[in-house]
Amino acid sequence: MVSVDLYSKTGCHLCDIMKTKLYQIRKKHPFDLHEIVIQEGDEYFEQFKDRIPVLFINKEFAFQYRIQEDRFIEIIKRLSIT
Predict the structure, then answer these.
(1) pLDDT score recorded for residue 82
(2) Alpha-carbon gap, residue 4 to 7, rounded angstroms
(3) pLDDT digits (tens, 9 = 90+) for 28-69
(4) Which helix (H) or strand (E) holds 35?
(5) 3-state SS class at 73
(6) Whose CA is closest to 47, among 31, 64, 32?
(7) Cβ of 44: how many Cβ atoms within 10 Å?
(8) Residue 17 φ then ψ, to 5°
(9) DSSP three-state, residue 79
């Protein structure tokens, strides 16, 4: 199964939008979704604090700020076959 990691912060409007979009897509195109909520002092905070939401697919960077739904589905489908 394809693994999707979403790095987000509490109170982040763009994060909420991306998360909602991912839940909608996952209804038709299954994948494992892991949300990593960062906060000051966390391992990934300095790396992602000004870039969130950040999305990784199978540990590879895929999207930042916004998700391109068609491209995301294309990637998920391709990785599901392999």
Answers:
(1) 63
(2) 10
(3) 999 999 999 998 888 888 888 889 999 999 999 999 999 999
(4) strand 32-37
(5) helix
(6) 64
(7) 13
(8) -65, -45
(9) helix
pTM of the model: 0.91
Q: Extract the tokens encoding 36.
A: 């990593």
CA angle 2, 3, 7 (to 5 degrees): 150
H runs (alpha helix) in 1-82: 13-26, 45-48, 69-81
In this predicted model, what pLDDT tens digit does every residue of 4-26 receive, in sequence order? 999 999 999 999 999 999 999 99
Q: The tokens of 72 are what?
A: 């995301």
Spatial distance between the Cα atoms of 48 and 71, rounded to a whole number of angstroms: 22
pLDDT of 34: 97
Q: What are the structural domains of the chain?
A: 3-81 (3.40.30.10)
**Pairing assessment for the beta strands 32-37 and 60-64 based on DSSP bridges:** unpaired
